[in-house]
UniProtKB/TrEMBL annotation:
It comes from Nonomuraea coxensis DSM 45129. It comes from the Bacteria. This is Bifunctional protein GlmU. InterPro entries: GlmU-like (IPR050065), MobA-like_NTP_Trfase (IPR025877), Nucleotide-diphossugar_trans (IPR029044). The keyword Ribosomal protein does not apply.
Length: 252
């Protein structure tokens, strides 16, 4: 990594409505006094020079109170995504001025309770300082599938957009490492011609990764992940219960 280092960006503007929690997902408790934010902070602060979190308008005040010490010491910053228009908008809209000064952006979904610090370290160690580095894991029934060919990423299939993912396919663990050089301009080119998702109506971030490889010619580095549990975010009550059991077995 160069001296400008890594900025981790956590899009966390979801409302947590499916969980019925009444608080943003990133603030949901995994154990007494331990929230999703605390877990992500433990894994990201040692690895990244700065962490930027994108929240909803309703979540801004509560999250700033939760992360007050980190914000005060300058290690964490916060911006607001005014409308829930997708991850790409959060990363390249609200967050862009915060990560633009860094050589590397590490995007981490805000509900990845089962992400390991070892995976974060492995991704940053493997990142060549250019292109895209992806930790991927084989899944029996992937929700998202990454199709690789010839050393590149040719397609990302998304179940939520009605696309069929193949059994045993490679899925992500909610972590994406990208070189920032020219990245905002590449997103603008992609967004100008990209179709919107059939179900969400969003210009999706994940197909942008395939665009970077296939159209922009950026190299893709894959970091194998052994444990499929790392791919499991917190989206349902069952996911939350799983995360709590996992934390109790291995709180670090």
């Amino acid at each position: 990594m160069s001296e400008r280092g890594v900025c981790a960006v956590v899009p966390a503007a979801g409302r947590g409505t499916r969980l019925g929690s009444g608080v943003p997902k990133i603030m949901i408790e995994i154990a007494d006094g331990v929230t999703l934010w605390h877990l992500l902070r433990r894994r990201l602060r040692p690895a990244a020079r700065h962490v930027h979190v994108v929240v909803s308008p309703e979540g801004e005040g509560p999250f700033l109170a939760l992360a007050a010490a980190d914000v005060e010491d300058g290690g964490v910053s916060v911006s607001v995504q005014e409308r829930p228009t997708g991850m790409g908008d959060a990363i390249f809209g609200a967050a862009a001025r915060h990560w633009a000064a860094y050589d590397t952006i590490l995007v981490v979904w805000g509900d990845q309770a089962n992400l390991s610090a070892a995976t974060v370290r492995a991704v940053l160690a493997a990142h060549p300082g250019k292109g895209v580095t992806l930790p991927l894991v084989a899944m029996a029934d992937p929700y998202v599938e990454y199709e690789l060919a010839g050393g590149g990423l040719v397609r990302v299939r998304q179940s939520r957009e009605g696309e069929e993912c193949r059994p045993g396919g490679l899925s992500d663990v909610g972590v994406f490492c990208l070189a920032t050089d020219g990245l905002a301009d590449a997103w603008a080119r992609y967004a100008a011609g990209a179709g919107r998702g059939a179900a969400t109506g969003e210009v999706n971030f994940l197909p942008f990764l395939a665009y970077l490889s296939r159209v922009e010619g950026r190299p893709v580095t894959v970091v194998p992940v052994a444990d499929p549990a790392e791919a499991r975010g917190v989206n349902t009550a069952e996911d939350l219960e799983f995360a709590r059991r996992t934390y109790l077995r291995c709180p670090d």
